[in-house]
Design brief:
With about 350 residues, this protein is α/β, with parallel strands linked by helices. It has 2 domains: about 130 residues, Oxidized Rhodanese, domain 1 (3-Layer(aba) Sandwich), CATH 3.40.250.10; about 210 residues, Rossmann fold. It has 16 helices and 12 strands. A hairpin with a 2-residue loop joins strand 9 and strand 10. The longest helix is centred in the C-terminal third of the chain and has 24 residues. The termini are far apart. The mean pLDDT is about 95.
């Protein structure tokens, strides 16, 4: 007869998390916000302030007082969760619990859940074991993937085309969406904060572990970093050796697309001028001042075109052949406009066997 809580390793359940009715992260909200197992909910047994207080007591007083203080907080918080979030759970409800190392915090909640009668599982090694699994398996998951890399100059619609392919049931890895960044020096999204590096990797792992390696996965050509986040080396190296598709779009249409996608710069031109300062070492103060004055005059479209022709396109042309070994073999797709029908047509050309 099974004794609960059941102690279970992440390696044994990584592909079977759906067997649990709920995955519960009992760490503090700050720890949860940095990263967590995809799909987990946060039910902290110590909130941010309580965790700091217990840690301070441990360092400045002693471990016994810290444990007594922590136990009082943990008991109170578990009681609150039982009286609210878990009050209607049936007898056969099966949760998986974890904390930082699978010790005191999750162990306390798991013990109480088991005494109630729920068939609770406790993650051995906690979040640290999960992170170890991520670090070890992303390179493994990357092996034998059939990447199809969408290449093309800035503003040629690669992200929209990627989403069009997804709408047709194709597998994609949208690194910019996962990173909450558009992948260039001007790519910050003011309304969104980039996730932590660990969360970024968790998102990638969650997608790769359910992909079908018998079918291609479409991805944009990226540099090693998307904003402040680093694309895992195994993925980057694999992408750079893979089949490429070159997307081409007239400059005027690219300007139109960028004006749509970077509309916050039109509403707040000071944000664009702030970002332009980061290009000063490449183009000189005189050129940057010229562009900034144009921005203040409302001539943002002209600045965008200048940036494409003088900054982004030369950088792309210099790097694409060096970094993507099969670019010379790329299938070429002309994306003529921003109309949905044209993105549909480009997607069909990509999927065509011809």
């Amino acid at each position: 007869m099974m004794r609960y809580p059941e102690i279970i390793s992440f390696d044994s359940i990584a592909d079977h998390l759906s067997q649990f009715d709920c995955v519960i992260d009992v760490r503090s909200p700050a720890e949860f916000a940095e990263d967590h197992i995809p799909g987990a909910i946060n039910c902290p047994v110590l909130d941010n302030e309580e965790r700091i207080l217990v840690g301070t007591t441990y360092k400045q007083v002693d471990s016994f007082e810290a444990k007594r203080l922590g136990a009082s907080f943990i008991a109170t918080n578990i009681g609150k969760h039982l009286a609210t979030q878990f009050k209607d759970k049936p007898k056969n409800w099966r949760p998986l619990l974890y904390c930082w190392r699978g010790g005191n915090r999750s162990g306390a909640m798991a013990h109480i859940f088991a005494k109630i009668g729920w068939p609770v599982a406790l993650l051995e090694g906690g979040y640290k074991a999960y992170r170890q699994h991520i670090n070890q398996t992303i390179p493994e998951l990357t092996k034998n993937i059939q990447w199809e890399v969408l290449c093309g100059t800035t503003g040629c619609g690669k992200s929209r085309l990627l989403r069009t392919l997804a709408s047709k049931g194709e597998q994609i890895l949208d690194l910019e969406a996962l990173a909450c960044h558009r992948g260039s020096v001007l790519g910050d999204i003011p309304t969104e904060k980039q996730p932590s590096q660990k969360m970024f990797e968790s998102h990638i792992w969650a997608i790769l572990k359910v992909t079908d390696k018998q079918r291609p996965i479409y991805v944009e050509a990226e540099s090693k970093k998307v904003g402040n986040l680093r694309v895992p080396d195994a993925i980057m190296n694999s992408m750079r050796e893979s089949s490429c598709i070159s997307i081409e779009m007239p400059v005027a249409v690219r300007v139109q697309l960028l004006m749509e996608e970077y509309c916050h710069f039109i509403e707040h031109p000071e944000l664009l001028n702030h970002q332009l300062d980061f290009l000063c070492h490449l183009h000189g103060k005189e050129k940057i001042l010229l562009w900034k004055n144009q921005v203040l005059k409302g001539e943002i479209a002209q600045v965008v075109q200048s940036l494409l022709e003088e900054h982004y396109d030369p950088a792309y042309n210099k790097s694409i052949n060096r970094n993507f070994s099969r670019f010379q073999e790329a299938k070429h797709i002309l994306q003529a406009s921003l109309e949905t029908i044209d993105f549909e047509s480009s997607a069909q050309q990509i999927l065509s066997k011809d």
